[in-house]
Amino acid sequence: MKSFFLIIIVLLSVSLFTSCKHDNKQPNIVVVLCDDLGYGDLSTFGHPVIQTPNLDQLAEKGIKFTNCYSAAPVCSPSRVGLLTGRSPNKGGVYDFIPGIKKSPDCRDLVHLQASEQTIPAMLKAAGYATCLSGKWHCSSRFNSDAQPTPGYFGFDHWFATHNNAVPSHKNPRNFIRNGKKVGELKGFSCQIVANEAIQWLTDKKDDKPFYLQVCFHEPHEPIASPKDLVEKYLPQSENENQAEYFANVENMDKATGRLIQFLEENYSDNTLVFFTSDNGPETLNRYYRATKSYGSPGNLKGMKLWTNEAGFHVPGILYWMGKSTFNGTSDAIVSSLDLMPTFAELSGATLPNRTLDGESITSLIKIGEKERVKPLIWAFYDAINEHRVAMRIDDWKIMCRLKIDTAYLCHIHNLCEGNEKLVKEAEMTDFELYNMKDDRGETVNVAMQYPEVFNKMKLQFESEYSDLLKDSYVWKRESK
């Protein structure tokens, strides 16, 4: 009889363990981030030529966000904003981070600082296993003791490059795995990055939920694509370079498809996937290597490095495997800044003890409804267009130029001791107002047409920008 009861207890214990293993209330979370992918570059977002069947299917199963924003119109600050849930200006990352060449504006010092709190660190403290696979670009001294590595910010496993794949997407040789150089790898970057993510999940032995951040280099220059895909697009392209770009986006879609298939086969009970881009598409021939940059802004104004919409209005797709959510297209305003508070709410993690600029979109995910409280504001001092500061609230967007006496603020890459006064004393001027519901292309300034809306927006804009300036980090070079 004792043996019988012992067997029953063992069976119940196994059953309970199995149930807990497959009914983890904390969702697995996967963020897929592209590099320079334009709002109009996916077929589900209207591209007439490029085929992205895997992402199209992801959008059909989940939520397609038509008002999704990145934290900045360029790479490094956008990534810092995503990781921290705060304006990158507060972390001191104002523009893309170059190498370590010393400059008067201290750009060689810029990095994601040790004091910043990140999504992977927050989730790791809540019991998650964490992995980064792909591009980092959050420090000027990569894989160096001089600045924190991805591992410092909560990634248990990291396989990354400092910036772009070198020499191109084909056979890259600049990946680092957990602090050690990997050497040349055969194949294309997006497939290599997907392989690493899948391998990490395959090797994972524990039952912890996981946070996986997959950062493709595609379709950022220097572009290289599989020959068969290039040949596929040649008949529909202006030239071979355009075919290379079209093929590059489809190759990224194929890599994403392989990852999604693996997740559906192994973690389909509770895995949330969020797909987006760090900023808008590069301008063809803007610099000497941008010869294949045929990205599309869709029906938006501007490109990468603009504070007009196409600079930071990006594709966004969310799919939560195994859970009932809102399904369809949403025009709600969402931002990469929202990921940290959203993931905290869904996982039960504790948010950092600081004011975030994003807000949870859990209700939007679950029932398709969300009333946004916080406006989105961008201050990008190196913008190609004239209006360096912009803010979006509901259907309205307001922009301004910055003026010092009789001259407009020059292009600034970084806020430092040498230019702090110049930036902080600049006057907001030449305001423009756009109705984003009726005019996504920002073609008509309606400030005069809607004076009440304009005056209200202007007051809030001035207040929000003043607060951002107060919290913006100023870099200082230590005196010897």
Give a description of the structure.
The structure is a single chain. With 480 residues, the chain is α/β, with parallel strands linked by helices. The protein folds into two domains: 348 residues, Alkaline Phosphatase, subunit A (3-Layer(aba) Sandwich), CATH 3.40.720.10; 95 residues, Arylsulfatase, C-terminal domain. Helices cover 29% and strands 19% of the residues. It has eleven helices and 15 strands. It has a ten-stranded mixed sheet, sandwiched between helices. Strands 11, 12, 13, 14 and 15 form a five-stranded antiparallel sheet that branches. A hairpin with a 2-residue loop joins strand 13 and strand 14. 50% of the residues are buried. The N terminus is likely disordered.
Please write out the topology.
Blueprint: H1 2-22, E1 28-34, H2 53-61, E2 63-69, H3 75-84, H4 119-125, E3 129-135, E4 157-161, E5 176-177, E6 180-181, H5 189-203, E7 210-215, H6 227-233, H7 240-266, E8 271-277, E9 313-321, E10 328-335, H8 339-347, H9 362-367, E11 376-379, E12 389-393, E13 396-404, E14 407-408, H10 420-424, E15 427-435, H11 451-471
Parallel strand pairs: 1-7, 1-8, 2-10, 3-4, 3-7
Antiparallel strand pairs: 2-9, 4-5, 5-6, 8-9, 11-12, 12-13, 13-14, 13-15
Helix pairs in contact: 5-7, 6-7
Write a brief caption for the model.
This protein has 480 residues and is an alpha/beta fold.
Residues in β-strands, percent:
15-25%
CATH level-1 class of the largest domain: Alpha Beta
Per CATH, what is the topology of the largest domain? Alkaline Phosphatase, subunit A
The structure class reads alpha/beta
Biggest sheet layout: 10 strands, mixed
Number of domains: 2
State the helicity in percent bands.
25-40%
N-to-C order of helices and strands: HEHEHHEEEEHEHHEEEHHEEEEHEH
- Distance, first to last CA: 81 Å
Low-confidence stretches: 1-23
